[in-house]
Structures are given as C-alpha cells and as structure tokens.
Amino acid sequence: MPERILVVDDDRDICRSIEIVLRLEGYDVHIAYEGEQAVEEATRIQPDLVLLDMMMPGIDGYEVTKRLRHDPRTATASIIMLTARSLPADKVLGLTAGCDDYIVKPFDPSELVARVQSALRRSRQMREVSPLTGLPGNFQIAAELERLVGEESTEFAVLYADLDDFKAFNDHYGFMRGDEAIRATGRLLTDALARHRASPSFAGHIGGDDFVLVTSAANAETIAQDIVSNFDAIAPGLYDDEDRERGYIEVADRRGVLHHYPFLSVSIGIASSATRPIRSQWEASSVATEMKAVAKRKVGSSYEIDRRRT
Q1: Are residue 26 and residue 110 in the same domain, yes or no?
Q2: Quick one: CA dihedral 110, 69, 29, 188, positive or negative?
C-alpha cells in the first residue's frame, strides 16, 4: 500500500505541482486548501506525512500542526512545513509547534522528494507501527509509559482492551474478516480518545486484538464507557445477515461439536496512578491486565478499574 501524503496550501498551483511530483514517485496524494479542511482530511485519511503551508487564511499552519499533534489519529504523522519565510525565528516557531522539517519556497522538486523520503524513512524507524491498524507498536507503548512514570506529577491511566470470543469469529469468517474487525476496533478506540481530549493522549496496538490507550486519570472511566457503548453498537454490523438475525455464530471445536458464540464484545482493564502510584511500565501493564481479566468475567462489553489504594 503506498504511503499517504496530505498536501496543504492555499495556492492551488503549488498543490498541483507537488501532487504531480509525488504521484510520479508512487505516493497516494491528497489535497487541502485551508486549515480546517486540512484537519478534517487528516483525521479522515490519517496520512503518513503532511506537507503544510504555514501561512494560510483561517487557521494557519502552526495551529493545524498543534491540532494534529494532539489527536491520537494523526499524532504520529510526519509534518514538513512549507514556508516562504527563511528567517530562523519562523523555522523555530514551526519546529516548536511540532513540525519535523521545513522547506523554503520556492523549492526544487528533487529537494522536495529527498526531504519527503527522508522524513518517511525516519518515521518508519521511530514509529514501529502496526501494519494492520497504523497505530504505534510495543516499543512506543513502552516508551510512552516509561515517560509518564518518570513524570511523577502527572496523573495518568492505562486502558488495556481486547475482544471477547475473537478466535471464534476469526475461525468462522476467516482472517480477512478478522482483520477488518481489528481495524474497526482500532478506529473506535482512537475516535473515543479524540472525543474526550486530555493529556496524555496515546493509542497503541500491542498485536492481534489487544490495544492500549493512555489518557488522563480523570478521563479514563468516561472513555471506557464510550468504548463499551459504541462497540456494542457496531458489533452486529461485523456479522453476516443470517448470523446477525440469529444473534450468534456456530463454530465447531476439534471434536466437531458445535458451540454458540455471541457477538464480539470488548473488555477493558484500567490502571490509574490517581488511586495508587505506578512505578514502572510493567506495573501499569500488570494491573491493567488483571483488571481486564476481571472485566472478562462479565457478560458482554465491560470495563473494570483498579480502585485499590495499596
């Protein structure tokens, strides 16, 4: 799958020329002509890289950068600012806002391609994203947790989520349908995180049907409730009409005995530093995993938060 690039500039001729150059290099290019449109398009396509003009009508490139960096769906995208200003202060402002690199207009097409390739290469090396969901993998999850553990003044919560009876679903419908269920879950989780904005705000995909969210301690339960409610709303749509009307699927075990499995549900375990200190990423993971096991004892989608003080 070609990497997605979003080009944002109010000058349509510049957008068109960049689009031609990058499409010839094999990239999937999308265009936006102003700031609000850029944020909406970035949220929709979740680009690998954004080429962003800093000076635009409405919200400028600096504000667009901040919004993209604060949304878990776009936070890991590389951002290269396009600027007609070559003053050091302008470059510093863009880099401080969250840009990864800059190109001063007018620029040579070969320089553009080289900087895009370099930014994407660095991004791939640093993000270690899941190829299925595009979310950060285990390395970044661990780094984020270690960072928060080191900031003792920051109260945070870790939500560990996975799907119930996913193996039966995968066996019944096959890997492609299973992958789509995982992608749908990833989108649902990041959407919930985006609806309840807080700091920190992080979503990661451990692998398979296992996900981790990191948010503020105050927001954790609200996000869990959002996820549970919305997952139960979308789950029936993952099934064929006949199975959906019946309310379950039939899957044979190794002995050929048929078993009934209800619709997929999600179980979430929550560890929060607001109730007791979290001293390492391993402790956060252990507590959240324990709480998830408790949630799985319930029927249907549910969550369990660790409320112990010691």
Answers
A1: yes
A2: positive
